[in-house]
């Protein structure tokens, strides 16, 4: 693989993967990104121009996608509408980008005979009870809860159908909640860190008991690169780093990092249909492909992330006020 097309490569996780490729391989990268509100030019700054090219375009536009795909050896597909709360306010861009966009890409790789990796989420499996000893595996039945997760579940099914019916050379990964630099302030961890930096209080949906299985975005990138190189065609791999924490625990870790009292947060209106718990069993990826996360300790990764948001206020501050106004209008 010498030339890789990364869709959504200007977003939080896609840009991390582009940096991963540039630092650890000699491949040339093309980023195809529509530059929605979630994209960031800054996340791609300082990359060598002879290694990374940005094409601004929509994955649902076949006239853009088809000629571009033929120029590459593989497509790694990150582009998506990614925020559950937004999908509850307006599902339409989620259906267009996540379903129609994935369909357009699949048709392009089918015609061109190009390798495809589909980046998806653990949310396709719905949720687990807090005391359920089981975690999600590749065999867990699909049961998505939100318009976002339903659109990602549908996109996964499209990929599997294109593998089986058309022989497309594709793999799928379903990863748990990512954290790290360049994550938009609408998301849980950046929202709480930046609230505290601004002298405000973290906002917990409902009781704060919901559990997420946190993984650093660097570890997600190394897993996707492992699957792209060594994954078996047609297979799905779950990506996770044993990082289960409830939301209250995460908020209290952030408060502690700033020397604020452990009860210095607000309970706000819960998310409709809020999934209770996600938990990933990544045994298949670890045993078959030999992948291991580099971040053994969520506390250390979170502390570095807190410091990153302290150091990059110029980046997130222009978006903060509008994000908070949208949440406030919903009592969140
Ligand atoms: P993000 O919202 O930060 O970035 C998405 C990127 O896709 C943006 O740069 C945006 O401009 C681009 N994009 C959106 N619509 C597009 C379109 N129609 N055409 C071209 N580009 C478009 O998202 P993220 O958190 O980086 O997530 C990336 C992928 O990883 C998504 O597929 C998501 O489902 C998946 N994922 C995310 C997480 C997580 O915790 N954030 C976990 C597992 C899987
Ligand atoms: O599990 C993978 C998924 O993780 C990805 O597929 C999604 O793209 C990504 O956004 C993320 O989805 P979540 O809905 O889990 O992430 P979010 O950051 O929105 O919320 C994390 C948890 O925190 C969730 O239980 C809701 C809660 N929350 C969120 C916000 C924004 C709060 O309690 N307060 C908040 O202000």
Pick out its properties.
332 residues, alpha/beta, Rossmann fold, 7-stranded parallel beta sheet, two-stranded parallel sheet, 11 helices, 16% strand, globular, binds nicotinamide-adenine-dinucleotide, binds 2'deoxy-thymidine-5'-diphospho-alpha-D-glucose
Uncertain parts: none
Please write the CATH class name of one domain: Alpha Beta
Shape: globular
Return the average pLDDT rounded to an integer.
Answer: 98
Query: Total strand count, please?
Result: 13
Structural class: alpha/beta
For the record, the CATH architecture of one domain stands as 3-Layer(aba) Sandwich
> In the CATH hierarchy, what is the superfamily of one domain?
NAD(P)-binding Rossmann-like Domain
Please give the radius of gyration in angstroms. Answer: 19 Å
The total of helices stands at 11
> What compounds sit in this structure?
nicotinamide-adenine-dinucleotide, 2'deoxy-thymidine-5'-diphospho-alpha-D-glucose
Cofactor: NAD(+)
Pfam family, one: GDP_Man_Dehyd
Catalytic activity: dTDP-alpha-D-glucose = dTDP-4-dehydro-6-deoxy-alpha-D-glucose + H2O
Family: Belongs to the NAD(P)-dependent epimerase/dehydratase family. dTDP-glucose dehydratase subfamily.
């Amino acid at each position: 693989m010498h030339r890789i097309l990364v869709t959504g490569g200007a977003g939080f996780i896609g840009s991390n993967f582009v940096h991963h490729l540039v630092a650890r391989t000699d491949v040339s990268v093309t980023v195809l990104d529509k530059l929605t509100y979630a994209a960031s030019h800054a996340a791609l700054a300082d990359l060598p121009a002879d290694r990374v090219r940005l094409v601004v375009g929509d994955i649902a536009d076949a006239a853009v996608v088809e000629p571009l795909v033929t120029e590459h050896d593989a497509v790694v597909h990150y582009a998506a509408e990614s925020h559950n709360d937004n999908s509850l306010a307006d599902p339409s861009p989620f259906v267009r980008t996540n379903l129609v966009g994935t369909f357009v890409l699949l048709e392009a790789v089918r015609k061109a005979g190009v390798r495809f990796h589909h980046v998806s989420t653990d949310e396709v499996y719905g949720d687990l009870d807090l005391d359920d000893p089981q975690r999600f595996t590749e065999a867990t039945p699909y049961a998505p809860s939100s318009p976002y997760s339903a659109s990602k579940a549908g996109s996964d099914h499209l990929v599997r159908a294109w593998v089986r019916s058309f022989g497309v050379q594709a793999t799928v990964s379903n990863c748990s909640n990512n954290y790290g630099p360049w994550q938009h302030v609408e998301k849980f961890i950046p929202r709480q860190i930046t609230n505290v930096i601004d002298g405000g209080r973290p906002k917990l949906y409902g009781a704060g008991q919901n559990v997420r299985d946190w993984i650093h975005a660097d570890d997600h990138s190394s897993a996707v690169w492992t699957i792209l190189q060594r994954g078996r065609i047609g297979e799905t791999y779950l990506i996770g780093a044993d990082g289960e924490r409830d939301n209250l625990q995460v908020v209290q870790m952030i408060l502690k990092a700033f020397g604020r009292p452990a009860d210095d947060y607000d309970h706000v209106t819960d998310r409709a249909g809020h999934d209770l718990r996600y938990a990933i069993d990544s045994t298949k990826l670890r045993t078959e492909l030999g992948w291991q996360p580099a971040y053994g300790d969520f506390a250390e990764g979170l502390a570095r992330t807190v410091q990153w948001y302290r150091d990059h206020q110029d980046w997130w501050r222009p978006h903060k006020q509008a994000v908070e106004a949208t949440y406030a209008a919903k009592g969140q």
